[in-house]
Amino acid sequence: MTIDLASIEKFLCELATEKVGPIIKSKSGTQKDYDLKTGSRSVDIVTAIDKQVEKLIWESVKTQYPTFKFIGEESYVKGETVITDDPTFIIDPIDGTTNFVHDFPFSCTSLGLTVNKEPVVGVIYNPHINLLVSASKGNGMRVNNKDYDYKSKLESMGSLILNKSVVALQPGSAREGKNFQTKMATYEKLLSCDYGFVHGFRNLGSSAMTMAYIAMGYLDSYWDGGCYSWDVCAGWCILKEVGGRVVGANPGEWSIDVDNRTYLAVRGTINNESDEQTKYITDFWNCVDGHLKYD
Amino acid sequence: MVLTRQVLEEVENTFIELLRSKIGPLVKSHAGTNFCSYDDKANGVDLVTALDKQIESIIKENLTAKYPSFKFIGEETYVKGVTKITNGPTFIVDPIDGTTNFIHGYPYSCTSLGLAEMGKPVVGVVFNPHLNQLFHASKGNGAFLNDQEIKVSKRPLILQKSLIALEGGSERTEGSQGNFDKKMNTYKNLLSESGAFVHGFRSAGSAAMNICYVASGMLDAYWEGGCWAWDVCAGWCILEEAGGIMVGGNCGEWNIPLDRRCYLAIRGGCESMEQKRFAESFWPHVAGELEY
């Protein structure tokens, strides 16, 4: 069976802008009583709105695409939920929930589709700044429904070199143990003039928004562990459409699944030469101090 | 002479007009282009563009023409050890704050125009043309974002539930307990479960933008060492007019001069006693003492 990916992208864009976005924008910052996620730390915030929005999305996509599978952050069951080869919507109703609770204007909805476990449609919408970034496999990338000329952007960005790059980093919600130590030690190495000496790090608190910004050419890379398939699926598809690449956060992880839970996302280069990207990734991995591991 | 509220508001409007009509379009149209033509300033990551210098020149010409008796301090014309902030009215200007963002096209560079009198910020305007965010304030006249008065929503200010702006800074030398090491250790203290365990940190890459986000209540606090008076002057005024406070980044520094170079900005939307308690609970997590 042939799937019309462009049509699904369009459907998800409308779902994001017409239904999900307005809820996110109007409810942002209004949650005074946090719903703590079962077994999670107090900094991992789930709101009732998050759950309601996911239900809305699930009902909408189920009506339109009844045979497709659905994986959402709120309905995920550890050890049970698996990504198969079937067309599967992978959804984060509100990415950047800490931002959402604090009314920091970088929460967004992230809607992705995998086929044969590969991200093939991605839609990310931040209603606070009216930014809609979308793509589907083979169809390029759009910003606010207009084709995005990423080639001109990459041209203006110049070479992809670690010590001339701006890197996105996020500490995540787990703040003890080996993974946290590895993250902090790696940040230090990336910044240090003896190692990575990157131009700087940025953090806006949303994986999906970060990947959208990399695709737009605003950031060079994003290194993280602890996020899930729904945090990265949409961004992964968008990034691939503009010559970007997603590998693992740990050295040597060149080929990973969408639910790998550690990621290094890297922007495209002007000629889409893999050598430049490969060297960047290798240099980056040399700064990884320790090993990220998530169950 | 002390400037009246009316004069301060006039200066504020002059800043707004200058930014909207001249400077904003320049910054926006040039961001993220001609990556290879920048010269390095202090080291490999402190970047200056020709445009930065050009914009400062335009700002200086316009402001000194209208206010010839006011002094002018700009990032690009600053001379270490020579430039001083006096009691007289002084423009304190950063033509492009977030230069690294500007060069990379990351949409969080801005222009920051401040006026200080008696060494205190009394007018501040910060304009991010990429996101069309214009923050402005003058002493006694309130704080605004795109002409909407900033009203920080009332809620508790608790360190463990806070969202804090932190930056990598441009100092990168490891070892010998320099500022870089102290900063990294402070970040660990703030983030870790055995430390403050804050909700999270954010990095926009611009001191002025970070302070404005604290002023508007989107962030709870911003802690930084290494920035200059021009990075903070405008934002400081906006912060205070929105009910926030600025204290020192090192423990116990309740009153600091504009050029202290080490800052902790704390939002409004709560009682002044809560702000003080926040500072007192924050400071123990600062690893050592930042020195500039």
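The CA atoms of residues 43 and 246 of chain A lie 27 Å apart.
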